[in-house]
Specification:
Largest sheet: 2 strands, antiparallel
Strand content: under 5%
Strand order of the largest sheet: 1-2
Radius of gyration: 28 Å
Low-confidence stretches: 201-235, 238-266
Shape: flat
Number of strands: 2
Structural class: mainly alpha
């Protein structure tokens, strides 16, 4: 009986080492496709959001899995099975409450944290960082509970389920990050603005004396100047509200186009 128990513990420890190694390798490998997808701008947004998530996750778990495994193992050795169940319930309730509180704090505190981190950045960068932080907030409702369950199983010296759950958690995280980055960047999107809007057909031309009151002049791509040569759009246009103020809209036929691509010049 003792030999079987030792063999099971050795096998569980081996599986744990292999699973942790695989999880660490996945955490290293996924950075290569992620960097190619979102580039430096996206990596900066992701790093700032993930740093806050790691701090709050550490507070949510706060050593509960390790302590729970140790206490459960001691109670099992003394055959105090009622105390084991009591420890399990107290630990689960504690980590769930901490996870809910910190998830709410992370969600509603995201704009303040984003403004503090991106002091000299544009409003778009602050908005992108806020959305990234809020995308991570729901994980605080699940991951602390999973950590508590791992500690409970480790107290019974059942290491294999804990090892498999760590590897599966890392795999799901990596796949979700890479697929999410690809979805945002597909078709020319950016980490700050997200995926591009669907293309619409060209609207009919308007007379030179008409205004933009019925629709908005949009900047959705390159157009041709009166000479017929294409050049990049710069600077970005202001919203059209009846007239363009000190800005002039002109197209290939010197007519107003709303909401087709237009040239904006001083």
């Amino acid at each position: 009986m003792q030999v079987r128990k030792t063999s099971s513990l050795t096998r569980g420890a081996s599986v744990m080492v292999a699973s942790v190694t695989a999880a660490k390798l996945l955490g290293l490998i996924y950075l290569f496709p992620l960097t190619r997808l979102i580039h430096d701008e996206g990596i900066g947004i992701y790093s700032n959001a993930y740093a806050l998530y790691v701090i709050l996750l550490t507070l949510a778990t706060a050593g509960f899995p390790t302590a729970m495994g140790k206490l459960v193992s001691e109670r099992l050795a003394l055959r105090r099975y009622g105390e084991v169940e009591g420890l399990y319930r107290i630990t689960v309730r504690t980590v769930v409450r901490l996870g809910v509180i910190l998830a709410i704090l992370m969600w509603f505190g995201a704009p303040l944290y984003a403004r503090m981190v991106a002091l000299r950045e544009s409003a778009q960068a602050v908005s992108a960082l806020t959305l990234s932080i809020r995308a991570l907030a729901p994980a605080l409702l699940v991951v602390p509970l999973m950590s508590a369950l791992r500690g409970y199983l480790q107290g019974f010296q059942r290491l294999e389920p804990s090892a498999y759950s760590q590897a599966l958690e890392q795999l799901v995280r990596v796949v979700a990050i890479v697929i999410g980055a690809w979805w945002v960047m597909r078709g020319g999107g950016t980490p700050a603005l997200g995926p591009p809007p669907p293309r619409s057909g060209r609207s009919s031309a308007r007379s030179p004396g008409s205004s933009c009151s019925s629709s908005r002049c949009t900047r959705s791509g390159g157009n041709f100047d009166p000479g017929g040569a294409a050049r990049p759009l710069a600077p970005p246009p202001p919203p059209c509200g009846g007239s363009c103020g000190s800005w002039r809209c002109r197209s290939a036929s010197a007519r107003w186009w709303c909401p087709s691509p237009v040239w904006w010049t001083r």
